[in-house]
Design brief:
It contains one helix and twelve strands, in the order αββββββββββββ. By secondary structure, the chain is an alpha/beta fold.
Length: about 190
């Protein structure tokens, strides 16, 4: 008879923990949705994917244009999406599971925020062919999972530290329309 109450307690605890987990996922997804909408609203022009990016479409976050996810957003691919504006209002800390961030070939400008370092799981970052300027934030070097970085065709400059596995080295770059820096698993390439 003592086994039945013990089993009931275990089942109750399991159901309770599962319900807490689902609440956390819902909360995280809602934060991501709100962050994406806030950033979209800060852009200078309305991108053509406007209808899918709406708070009344929050149950379908994974169907939003350029968004890949399971329970949380894992990839944002808005390459060639006619985006105009900055990353100032993009809340990087709202995307703890983001592994791929591609905003290449748009009309984004300003500096690359140091908050990009909050994307600790990021393996792919492509901000090429935009109008970013100023110094490359040294915090990009804190992205320990980063395997690919493209900043081609921007007006960026600066010295920053890249930390790849156990190696640590400084790179002096002057990136404008005639130079590109691509970091991949194979190494670093400066392309004319």
């Amino acid at each position: 008879m003592s086994i039945i109450p013990y089993t009931s307690i275990l089942v109750f605890q399991f159901v309770f923990l599962i319900s807490l987990l689902s609440c956390k996922v819902t909360s995280s997804s809602r934060t991501e949705e709100e962050s994406l909408i806030q950033w979209k609203n800060s852009l200078s022009s309305s991108p053509p994917f406007d209808p899918s990016w709406a708070l009344n479409n929050t149950k379908n976050l994974c169907s939003w244009t350029g968004i890949v996810c399971s329970t949380t957003v894992s990839e944002i691919n808005l390459s060639q999406a006619s985006l105009e504006g900055t990353l100032v209002q993009f809340d990087f800390s709202s995307f703890p599971n983001l592994t791929s961030f591609n905003l290449s070939i748009n009309n984004l400008n300003g500096t690359i925020p140091s908050a990009v370092a909050n994307l600790s799981k990021l393996t792919f970052l492509d901000l090429s062919s935009n109008f970013f300027d100023g110094n490359i934030t040294w915090k990009i070097g804190q992205l320990k999972e980063l395997q690919y970085l493209s900043l081609y065709n921007n007006s960026l400059s600066g010295t920053w530290l890249v930390q790849y596995q156990r190696w640590c080295f400084a790179i002096l770059v002057s990136l404008n329309s005639s130079f590109s820096l691509i970091i991949s698993l194979e190494g670093i390439f400066l392309l004319p």
